[in-house]
Specification:
Chain A is an all-alpha fold. Helices cover 77% and strands 0% of the residues of chain A. Chain B has 2 domains: 81 residues, Phosphorylase Kinase, domain 1; 217 residues, Aminoglycoside phosphotransferase (APH), C-terminal lobe (Aminoglycoside 3'-phosphotransferase, Chain: A, domain 2), CATH 3.90.1200.10. The chains are: A mainly alpha, B alpha+beta. At the A-B interface, helix 2, helix 3 and helix 4 of A face helix 5, helix 9 and helix 10 of B.
Chain lengths: 122, 326
Amino acid sequence: MQYEPSAEQLLEAIAELLEDEVLAALPDALKHKCRVAGNLARILERQEALGPAGAARERERLAALVGAAGSTDAVELSRQLAQRIKTDDDPDFQRSAWDALVAICREDLAIAKPGHDAWEGP
Amino acid sequence: MRGLVASSAGARRGNVLFDADGPSRSLRLVATILPTAAIELNPITAEAAVRNLAEEHGVPVPHIHAVCTDASFVGGPFFLSDRVDGESVPRRVLRLVHAEGIGERVAGQLGEALARLHSIDPARAPENLMDDRSDNPAETALAGADRMVADLPLPRPALVYGIRWLERHLPPAPPRRTIVHTDARNGNILVSAEGLAAVLDWEGTVRHGDPMQDLAWPALRMWRFKEDGREIGGFAGREPFVAGYESAGGAFDEERFTWWKVLGTLRWALGLASQSAAHLDGRFRSIVMAASGRRVPELEWDLLMLIRPAQTERRAGGGSSADDDG
């Protein structure tokens, strides 16, 4: 099936509608919700563009850490990583786990909140 | 009564501003109204009493004139307090503070206010105030967070990583247990051109807490509202805040402070996750609650940055030592 406009393009159109037209016409009590909805449309727009490649890299990173015992499901791999974080005291593993979690989080933020990762503490 | 104005406060309660004329004087007042007693953390009488106790010890708060637990007047319990002028909306607070050049002063005054609160003998707190009777508030808080992480519908290894760090760095019971406000941060304070005007929102105040919980909470990144370089609420760095705390008799403990910062960040991630859960299971359908779920990675990032593994491990592996801790 061919979709034209694409999901990404339609989400962009929804965001523009909410931000540029609906917002100004709303009573104050609804403005915040409208901004949130517009922002969610922007998030989904970025997810359409960046999500598939990011999810593939997440699976690779998780699989590399937990030894990829047959599973390619990100949820299952995350579960295995969480379990190993709890039990494996090897500092090299903990360091690698932190590096991978930071890399995964960076990709989540590129969709959910670009720029949030500019800050690195404390 | 004159000039009634409804003002949007937090999500949980409403404020009505008005002037009351008596035979000999007029008062500028605020009625703080809970929609129902069912959502109270502390009973409203405890909140009012601990706030007035704090006032007696020099913590700036709007004086409370009366408390009413009878919901039949305005639909929920309420109290009446003086109306203090100032900004409380975080971004407006930051605009004012930086226009007036009083960021360090506000941070110092907040530290001072918390020291005064912590100087009060917890035995003097109202009897019906929430009480932490556990041996170690940090341990109790960690156990609660651990349970919530385990109960998440989808695994979040970054939060598990945070739990592990908190377990490895758990501080012993604090040398002093104090009354703890638990939510004294940018957004819950009133600031005027002169500086800190009042500490608000005492609904979550606890007796017998760890005082460093109160110092850590306003230092979290999410209360800086983009002013990331100013650790304390976007006002200023840590030094004036700690100096203010110590000048009023508080004892600052940096390790404990850091631990509570990590715990607070993790807790906020869990709070956002539970808001999205409340939307999904129908307890509270709202686009805002739904959006909270997509904000969890922000807190995961902040958490991971606070618990960066020691650089010595990387050096041992032959890596660079360019970016030191902190």
